[in-house]
Backbone:
């Protein structure tokens, strides 16, 4: 058994009881009423459109996020959305600068691959949530809008037919095949054994 002498134990006890002022000043209490913005997300990773609600407050003359909610018709995702939004909301309330969460979410890759949309490769549903959050941060004045990056889209010798196919087709949320493409305003799975379709309403 390892024993600490009384002096060491008293020092440790004092350290535990010291007020964490540098943390307390960043904790935001949720008022009874908050302002919020709602964003609709049509994702290739889930069956139904999701609605992302981001609430914010004004503290010391600056707007800051306070909470996030994700709602969808797909009840099978409720537990996943609850965990995700509770963790992000906790970061919003306790972090002085929660913008770091954008990079963390954007770096998550779906094991089944991603898809291209508007010239951008989408790695996962979580990176799509990060894109919505970044837009929200810009709108409430937390960060400046990034200048668009001009990319060279000329074909490279190393590109294969498979890469070209991946750019055209998206991941199907029903059959998990890269067989969904936009046809007449609808995301349609061309896999004859699936038949998944989602139209922009």
Residues:
């Amino acid at each position: 058994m390892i024993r600490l002498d009384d002096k060491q134990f008293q020092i440790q006890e004092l350290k535990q009881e010291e007020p964490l002022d540098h943390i307390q000043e960043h904790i935001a209490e949720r008022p009874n009423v908050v302002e919020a913005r709602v964003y609709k997300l049509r994702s290739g990773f889930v069956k139904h459109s999701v609605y992302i609600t981001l609430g914010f407050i004004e503290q010391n003359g600056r707007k800051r996020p306070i909470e996030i909610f994700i709602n969808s018709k797909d009840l099978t995702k409720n537990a996943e959305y609850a965990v995700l939004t509770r963790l992000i909301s906790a970061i919003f309330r306790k972090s002085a600068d929660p913008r770091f969460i954008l990079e963390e979410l954007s770096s998550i890759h779906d094991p089944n691959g991603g898809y291209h949309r508007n010239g951008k490769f989408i790695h996962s549903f979580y990176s799509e949530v990060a894109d919505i959050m970044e837009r929200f941060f810009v709108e409430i004045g937390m960060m400046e809008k990034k200048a668009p990056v001009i990319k060279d889209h000329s074909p490279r010798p190393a590109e294969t037919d498979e890469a070209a196919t991946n750019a055209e087709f998206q991941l199907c949320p029903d059959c998990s095949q890269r067989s969904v493409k936009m046809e007449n305003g609808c995301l349609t799975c061309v896999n004859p054994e699936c038949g998944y379709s989602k139209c922009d309403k």
Q: What stands out?
A: The chain has two domains: 32-146, 170-201.
